[in-house]
Amino acid sequence: MLDIKPMAGALGAEIRGIDLSVTLTEEDFLRVRKLLNEYQVIFFRESGITPENMRALALSFGPVQAHPAYETVVGFPEITILESKPEAPTKIEAWHTDMTYSEHPPMATMLKSVILPPKGGDTLWSSMTAAYDALSPRMQKFLEGLSAVHDFAFGFKESLAEPGGSERLADAIAAHSPVRHPVIRSHPETGKKAIFVNSLFTTHIEGLRREESDAVLSFLFEHVKTDEFTCRFQWGPDCLALWDNRCTQHRPINDYFPAHRRMERITIDGDKPF
Ligand SMILES: [Fe+2]
Questions:
Q1: Is position 273 within any domain?
Q2: Counting CB atoms within 10 angstroms of each CB, which of 40, 66, 111, 259 has the fewest?
């Protein structure tokens, strides 16, 4: 029996009744896809999902991507490890959409909890369709048709500033020139419009003076974290989160230092935002 527990007004639902510990039937996969379109981020507790099944589920959506800056799970080059340890705490704190420095940012991200801190470490998501809908028609019209620049080096500036960071990331930076995406994108499946700039990777809006771009972006970066657009997930053992990266942003809450936390992630190829 499919059991859906919505978590907030704008997005997010916990799902029971779909067994991720086995290869999904076509019918169950279509259910997952429909739930993702409806809730934008969905969660499965005590999922029992193995790396093989995580990869298989990701591949049901489409080809998967590698990440230039992270280690991967042995035997699974497409599963990246996101780890925070006392000697190497995580540095990502800003609200963001994953990997928007790519020409084709992921359509979705799957994240599994492997090692959890004793307390803290929740993650927030925000609906970018709700954030777009809440703008005045005048502001929507102003933003549509504008493009913004997204830059890998800007997103990883703290890592670059570390000793040895610029050497470690040199190849990744060389492979990722800044890219341009629309400030407002359309969702290819639902047709909904969504805000598509984020404070981690977006450097500026083209065609505006720098002061104007800074002012518009700082308004949008504040706007996207409005409580009413968000949901918050408290991780438990073996949880799987699956979010639509075309219409959401997320932020990890780094309140567990120096505890150890390890997550495993797969990102699924997306289209060129339009
Ligand atoms: Fe992320």
A1: no
A2: 66
pLDDT of residue 28: 96
Encode pLDDT of 220-230 as tens digits: 999 999 999 99
The pLDDT score that the predictor gives to residue 163 is 87
Q: How far apart are CA 240 and CA 198, in angstroms?
A: 24
Ligand 1 centroid–CA 199 distance in Å is 12
Decide if 87 is inside a domain: yes
At 46-71, the pLDDT tens digits run 999 999 999 999 999 999 987 777 89
DSSP E strand boundaries for 69-205: 72-73, 76-84, 108-115, 123-127, 147-150, 179-182, 184-186, 193-195, 202-205
Which domain CATH number covers 217?
Answer: 3.60.130.10
Q: Is the pTM of this model over 0.85?
A: yes
Domains: count for the chain: 1
3-state secondary structure of 53: helix
Q: Give domain status of residue 274, yes or no.
A: no
Cα–ligand 1 centroid distance for 1 (angstroms): 31
Residue 175's domain spans which residues?
3-268
